[in-house]
Specification:
Elements (H helix, E strand, L loop, with lengths): L1 H13 L3 H8 L15 H5 L4 H25 L4 H13 L12 H11 L1 H18 L2 H18 L6 H14 L1 H9 L12
């Protein structure tokens, strides 16, 4: 039963919609009615509140990290399920009728919680691609794909399956972004909407 407890605990923590909470508390409006309607940091940035976007990013990462560390504490053999639950909770929160974020920041947190070298590789890929392209979705998807590879090459092969599943989930949730990337219409951060 440990895997079930780990999955539930991870989901509960991951499902806290920090972006929505922060924008409402600060009077920035209902995040679901702004931009893409996503509850993640990139959409919070569209409110013009950079500080809120950074806070959302850190909190979404933090809940993934805390979820995995909590599971490590109580059910160490089920850490992967805690990671899976956290990202699923963020992407499909029951409180928001299962319409959440795209999992990039939370996956960063769980990657770090599972093994710091994986988290470091994830962060390097994410920030490197973001700096090079200024395209948020490209950075997030690239980082998600790097995670299972990083797990494999750093001696944490036990985490490859869950990270591969999460990478596929992140790509699937970015399918509209992928279509825009192919069409050359995906917005760049600070680029006025188009590449």
């Amino acid at each position: 039963m440990e895997w079930i407890y780990a999955l539930i605990a991870g989901y509960a923590l991951g499902s806290v919609p920090f972006g929505l909470i922060l924008t409402r508390l600060t009077g920035a409006g209902d995040l679901r009615a702004i931009g893409s309607g996503n509850i993640g940091a990139t959409n919070v940035l569209r409110t013009g509140r950079k500080g809120l976007a950074v806070a959302t990013l850190l909190l979404d990462m933090g809940k993934g990290l805390v979820a995995v560390l909590l599971v490590w504490r109580f059910w160490p053999e089920a850490a992967s399920y805690g990671a899976l639950g956290a990202v699923l909770g963020h992407c499909f929160p029951v409180w928001l009728k299962f319409k959440g974020g795209k999992g990039v920041a939370t996956m960063m947190g769980v990657s770090l919680g599972l093994a710091w070298p994986i988290g470091l590789a994830y962060a390097a890929a994410w920030l490197g691609l973001l700096a090079a392209t200024r395209i948020s979705s490209l950075g997030g998807m690239g980082a998600a794909l790097i995670a299972p590879l990083a797990a494999l090459v750093t001696g944490h092969a036990a985490f490859v399956p869950v990270l591969a599943v999460l990478a596929v989930l992140v790509l699937w949730l970015h399918r509209a972004n992928i279509a825009r990337l192919r069409a050359g219409t995906e917005p760049r951060i600070g680029g006025g909407g188009k590449p």
